Amino acid sequence: MIASLWFCFRILVAWALALIVLGIVWAQVFGDPGAIFALLVIGVLAMAAISAASHLHRVKLTAGRLDHDSLSSRQRRQIELPFDAGQAFALVESVIAGLPRVTDIESSPGSLQLRAKLVRVDPYNMSPPSRWNPRSWLAIKRNQVSATVTPGQGTSSVSLLFEPEAGAWADLLIPDEGSNRENAEAVSRAMRRRVAELRRDERETAERTEAEKELSVARLNLLHAQVEPHFLYNTLANAQVLTRTDPERAERMLGHLIQYLRSSLPGIDQSLSTLGQELERVQAYLEILRIRMGARLAVRIDVPEALQDVVLPSMALQTLVENAIKHGLEPKPGGGTIWVLAREADGQVHLTVADDGQGVGGSSGGGTGIGLKNLRERLRLGCGAQAGFALVSNFPSGAAATITLPRRPPTAQAAASTTIQVPELPHAT
User: In terms of Cα–Cα distance, which of 2, 15, 6, 11 is closest to 52?
Assistant: First the structure.
């Protein structure tokens, strides 16, 4: 109540003083003001009182209170945004540009400042005051808004000033009927809404990423489940044949199979393994094949001890060895040699399985391609963009398959969301 009374008193006193000065000037120029001037004074004071009352009413309706801050024709807002300066300025610019009746936007991204004009209209009929309305002769036609963005540590502070397009005299004579306060609240609401939308989009993106990660893990587990039966089927089929033809060799094969299973079963639920664990499995597998193939198979393994902690998809090395045997050495009369090599260069590990068999253009042996297809997919999901795969001809004969892996594995989330392009390979098991 005190703020309202003071506001009306201030407006009427300002107009009274202005009319007294006008009366003195009138007396000096035209002589005695007379009744006409008295009527003019009464009319002006009445319009000033009506204008003040209209201002109080509008502010009460829009703000729900009447105090010094809400009644002021000049409104200031300080808003903290959780963005860097560039993002915050772009947000402020888009919000102010979206205000109704905005004109003359002056934007300076370099200095993080923005100014704009807002056409003022009659709040009750949404049109500019008529020129025949005496109140419009002194009416202020536009408001203005100034914005400054101050950078911080991961956040930005936005200073907003809403005021009439006039000097301080307008605050004493012409109330704005709450238009600048409405503009200030509109900008504040729009910024809060934009920030809330961005936060909601971030949450939805995080939820989608988490769902994609879980889907990737499920796909990895499915691929792993596809690989294990594939290997066990081949191994048990070979053991069955040897059991009928050479029980002693079959016994040794089953011993190596037990060693293979002992190294495999503890990590059966894991989609990723280490080179050391994979090498232990492959050695057991190759021992089984050496029993079956005899002198037709020679094995050369050169994997430094320091690289045995390298992370790779489970059964990846096994897949390459199986393909080298099935498509390279088994169809070749007299067999041949298989090499397992690992080298580190420029932060990457190159794991190669090579043979001197029939090579890339040899007999396919009826392969379905599921082994290398799964390997490509599991490399993409498990090791990220730094992983790669290549299959080339070996010299003078055979093929060489190389997996390229990062020396240090990527995070699980990055690996799950990264796509790697791997070329289609011929003669895949």
Answer: 11
Whole-model pTM?
0.47
For residue 364, the model assigns a pLDDT of 45
Residue recorded with tokens 């005051």: 129
DSSP string, 261-282: HHHHGGGTT-SEEEHHHHHHHH
CA 11 from centre of chain = 53
Length of the chain: 429
Largest Cα separation within the chain, whole Å, is: 139
Check residue 419 and give its pLDDT.
34
Query: 269-301 burial string, b = 16+ CB within 10 Å, else e?
Result: eebbbbbebbbbbbbbbbbbbbbbbeeebeeee
Query: Which residues, other chains included, contact 351 with Cβ-Cβ below 8 Å and sequence gap of 6+?
Result: 275, 310, 312, 317, 340, 341, 342, 402, 403, 404, 405
Predicted local confidence at residue 411, as pLDDT = 47
Tokens of 224: 């792993």
The CA-based angle 299-330-288, given to 5 degrees, is: 50
Q: Determine the distance from the C-alpha atom of residue 82 to the mean position of all C-alpha atoms in its chain, rounded to a whole number.
A: 15
Residue 206 token pair? 């995080």
Q: Angle of helix 316-323 relative to helix 179-245, nearest 10 degrees?
A: 50
**Residue 396: what residue type?**
P
Q: How far is CA 230 from the centre of its chain?
A: 39
Q: How confident is the model at residue 332 (pLDDT cuts 50, 70, 90)?
A: confident
